Amino acid sequence: MPKVKKVPFQFTNEIQNGKHILTLSGNVQKKYWRDDDVINAKDIRESLDTVTDDIVIKLNSPGGDVFEGIEIYNYLKDHPSNITVEVTGLAASAATFIIAGADNVIMNVGTSLMIHEASTFAWGNKQDIQKTLNALETIDDSILAIYSDKTGQSAEQLREWMNEEKWYTADEAVEFGFANSVKRENSQEEPQDIDSIVQNAVAVAVANLQQPGTNHLEQEPKQKSLVGRLKKENKIC
């Protein structure tokens, strides 16, 4: 498993241009103490319960507690507002449940997404271990249901990806249904626009050159008629 560096915590709640912006950065985990720096369902509920405007969640998280992530997922799914999640860095593990609960998901260029099987620590006799295994299998089925509903992918394909601990680029996240689009800067499209302008200008210039009567430099002087010349030379009246 690639080692994920700790993501600095950030939780801000503000209104910009008629949209409610919630910035979430850090681990997904239940909040046990008032000063715990974690993304949690309680703080999200308190921030969004009274909101009726469109909501944008800017997300950067390596994940964390699966049950906390699923609670956030169900809260967002039931919220009456239109919710967009914009991934600004990483959406991995339990953080992917947050994007699954959104109406629209935008990946920024260079961002990543990762899914995997549920994991935990176990201690005890073989019966204790078996109970843990049974619980993990049930949790995996729950995760599969969430991903299947979001992506439209088959359970078999999703299970294979989870077993693999699959990482996705921004474009792959869109390709496989986890996200709706990749946010790119407009400047990347400018060279294409300039090319089109140049091509159109050249086409117009060529068309003008091919039209009769437009190349005055190559036109010969107009010849006088024979009668006209005789009249001028012999002064015939």
List keywords for this structure.
single chain, 237 residues, alpha/beta, 8-stranded mixed β-sheet, 8 helices, 8 strands, 41% helix
Envelope shape:
globular
Secondary structural class: alpha/beta
User: Using DSSP, what is the number of strands?
Assistant: 8
**Rg, alpha carbons:** 33 Å
Point out poorly predicted stretches.
187-191, 214-222
Our estimate of the beta-strand percent is: 15-25%
What is the straight-line distance between the termini?
Answer: 109 Å
Major beta sheet, specifics? 8 strands, mixed
Q: Would you list the SSEs in sequence order as H and E?
A: EEHEHEHEEHHEHEHH
- In helices, the fraction of residues equals 40-55%
In round numbers, the mean pLDDT is: 84
User: How many helical elements?
Assistant: 8
Detailed description of the structure:
The protein is an alpha/beta fold. 41% of the residues lie in helices and 22% in strands. It has helices spanning 41-48, 66-78, 96-100, 126-151, 155-164, 170-175, 190-210, 226-234; strands at residues 10-16, 19-28, 54-64, 83-92, 104-108, 112-114, 167-169, 181-183. Strands 1, 2, 3, 4, 5, 6, 7 and 8 form an 8-stranded mixed β-sheet that branches. α1 (41-48) links the parallel β2 and β3 (54-64). The radius of gyration is 33 Å and the shape is globular.
Entry summary:
With 237 residues, the protein is an alpha/beta fold. 41% of the residues lie in helices and 22% in strands.
Protein topology:
Blueprint: E1 10-16, E2 19-28, H1 41-48, E3 54-64, H2 66-78, E4 83-92, H3 96-100, E5 104-108, E6 112-114, H4 126-151, H5 155-164, E7 167-169, H6 170-175, E8 181-183, H7 190-210, H8 226-234
Parallel strand pairs: 2-3, 3-4, 4-5, 4-6, 5-8
Antiparallel strand pairs: 1-2, 6-7
